[in-house]
Amino acid sequence: MAAYSPLIRRLLICSLTIVVSRAITSPLLTLFVSDKLGLNQQDVGLLLGIAVFVATLLSLYGGYVIDRFEKRRLLILAMLSSAVGLVLLTFAENLYLTTLTLIVTETASSLFLIGSKAILSDNLPVGQRAKAFSLSYTLSNIGYAVAPMLGVLIAGFFASAPFLIAAAVAFFSMFLMTGIAKDPGAAPLIGQTQSFLKTLVTLKNDRTLIMFTAGCLLSTVVHGRFTFYLSQYLLTTGNPKHTMEIMAALLACNAISVVLLQYQIGRFLKREQLRYWIAGGTGLFIVGLIGFSLADSLVSWCMAMFIFTLGEMIIYPAEFLFVDTLAPEELRGSYYGAQNLAALGGALSPVICGFLLMHTPAPTMFYALSALAAIGGLLCFMSGRRVALLQN
User: Fold this and answer.
1) 268 to 11, 63, 77, 318: CA distances (angstroms)
2) Residues 218, 375: contact at Cβ < 8 Å?
3) Coil, helix or strand for 174?
4) Domain 202-392: which topology?
5) What is the pLDDT of residues 41-50, one digit of tens each?
């Protein structure tokens, strides 16, 4: 990270600390909300689903706001909102206020993600952006590999402590971004910024963006919440003890692979070849899914997970780099906000997979996901081809 400016270095560190703030509470959130409000797990799932759905839709406007105002200050506001929301969550007693608090924290997370991408694009040369996206993703996975275990250990002493610590991490992360001088080269083009309605019309008329976002949404059904459907499958075909053993090994395999290889793979991504990289990543997803359907031992599960993770390591930076290539400079935040709608695929994934597990033979789920991955990859490939033809 020494090669980057102070702004980029601090932004990358914030990417890690914000992920730690979220990941500390991730394994405890459903149980905590259930105990506080007296809800069953189905109702808690619905509550969290609503919060994620609303926050994802709001991220479209969040991208527009990022284009209009100084991005660094908006990131500080997002971190402050996340900290306040996590503290308020510990006082959760009312269903509606809890829902509002969850929406605030989820929206703040989306705003930070979109804003951080936009800052990386604004402040880095084209050739360094793929490596920076990959480095950010690597740091995020380090946070997700360590923080959940810490959260569980801390909760053993005091149930609300992980949420208060998460809030403190988010709050003190703000000071990493304060004290950094405003980059005059990244000043918002307010005089050229159009209204939100006109921005929506611009996004709607960009057929390439719509096609690519649709492809990303289908791809996100496959990789966005893969831990959910894998645990659903294992519980359907085995017992809880077996599920925990397999899932622990798979999560470790995924985290170690990303930490060791993500940055190295990101170095090889080229803007001119993105559609081929995405096609390759999609192919790895499909091979991994078929491997899951045939796995009958811990080793075979981990081999399939490694192949699947290779696809994830390609797709993640390639999607961001593609949007960076596609977006006009004055609408970069709006384009990232639109592409973030693909996160809805992660919300759909447990629903689709749960339905398939209930009404079809269990391995059918993986073949259906393979079909969705293939369609999503095809749409992304066609989007890349469309961009190449327009540039020529």
Assistant:
1) 23, 28, 34, 11
2) yes
3) helix
4) Growth Hormone; Chain: A; (1.20.1250)
5) 567 767 877 8
